[in-house]
C-alpha cells in the first residue's frame, strides 16, 4: 500500500510539473483587437456655461481732448463698414471732471449734452458737446461694438441689461478694463 501511495504521489507531482510547463505563456504577437463594447448610458447634464462675449469688440481711445472741440476717431482696420452697419454701437466717455466714471453718450453729463455721430463709410465717429459748459475735457473714450447675431424683420433682440451703465455692459460681455 505504501508503494501505491508513493506511486500516486509521484504521478501527481509529474502531472503538476507537466501542466505548469505546458501552461507557461510564450512571447508571441498579441491577438487582434476585439469588437467594441456597447455604448454606455449618457451622463448627467453639465452645469450651464458662463455667458460669453461672442464677437463683441471693445475699442479704447486714450486721447484727451477739449470738450468744446469736435473730436474725430478712426476705428482700427479690423472694424469694417459692414460691421459698423450691422452692429449695436455703444459709446462711453470719461471726463477730466470725474475720472472715476464712464458715461454713456448720447447723454447728459453734469448738464452738458454729449452726442456721437457714426460715419460707417469712413469707419469713424465724432464726439460733440451739443450744449453746456461744465465738462472741460474728455480723457478716455470706449466704444463697444455688438454684432447682430440674427436680424428678424429689421429688429435685433438685445439682452436685458442697462446699456447706460458701462460696468453692467462690461460684466455681461466679460470685457476687460
From TrEMBL:
Annotated stretches, region: Disordered:
28-54
Q: Where is the signal peptide?
A: 1-22
Superkingdom in the source lineage: Bacteria
For bias type Low complexity, the affected ranges are 36-54
Keywords (alphabetical) are:
Signal
The answer to whether the entry has keyword Signal is: yes
Protein name, as recorded: Collagen-like protein
What organism does the record attribute this protein to?
Runella defluvii
